[in-house]
Write a structure and sequence with these properties.
By secondary structure, the protein is α/β, with parallel strands linked by helices. It has six helices and nine strands.
């Protein structure tokens, strides 16, 4: 099954690039049809323009009310016939109305092995700082469903990354990011092949026998 994807991103958009590259190379059949950012200077918007993908800067401060903001957001998704929403470093909590509309069709990538090092305030370099401080020997990345509570949705797929002696938050972040770039397209592929099922709010997932190369 092929999906029209919308990627929400606030920063550089490196995971967006990984998803686009996976689509162009044929690793996945879905395509990014729309990119939305709350940051007008985000690299994600520039990447969308480079690849001739529709993009929108939509921020809450542009509207008189949260209701108007959400209405505009949902209209963009509908107009672009979006099937799935992918969060990739999006630094804003989605409105519950959006989550309800796209229930079990919104996923996020988190730079740790959830449920560890998740929740409010656990984003970007802060996650890796917490991992280093904990002394854990293994961290990684997780793709999970998005619900109304930060990082609490069911995990779909994870990839482990070793914490090396001498690692600091920056060096660890770089290696985890490389894992993210492999993991996100693999998770999308699971949806395309119908390997992800949701029953009674529980996720049943059959991973690929081998990671995508």
């Amino acid at each position: 099954m092929r999906f029209n994807l919308c990627v929400f991103a606030s920063g550089n958009g490196s995971n967006l690039k990984a998803i686009i590259n996976a689509s162009l190379s044929g690793r996945i059949t879905s395509r990014v049809s729309l990119v939305i950012s709350n940051n007008s200077n985000s690299g994600a918007l520039r990447t969308a323009a480079k690849y001739n993908i529709s993009y929108k800067h939509i921020s809450g401060i542009m509207f008189d009310s949260q209701k108007e903001y959400t209405k505009n957001l949902l209209a963009e998704l509908k107009n672009n016939k979006i099937d799935m929403i992918l969060l990739a470093g999006y630094m804003k909590m989605l409105d519950p109305a959006v989550i309800r509309k796209y229930r079990n069709r919104i996923i996020n990538i988190h730079p740790a092995l959830l449920p560890k090092f998740g929740g409010k305030g656990m984003f970007g370099i802060h996650v890796h700082e917490a991992v280093i401080k904990s002394g854990d020997a293994v961290t990684g990345a997780s793709v999970h469903f998005v619900n109304e509570v930060y990082d609490s949705g069911a995990v779909i797929l994870q990839k482990q990354v070793k914490v090396k002696p001498g690692d600091d938050a920056v060096t660890l972040q770089k290696r985890v990011l490389r894992a993210e770039h492999k993991l996100y397209p693999e998770a999308i592929k699971l949806f395309e092949e119908g390997r992800v099922k949701v029953r009674n709010n529980k996720v049943f997932c059959t991973p690929h026998p081998q990671p995508l190369s």
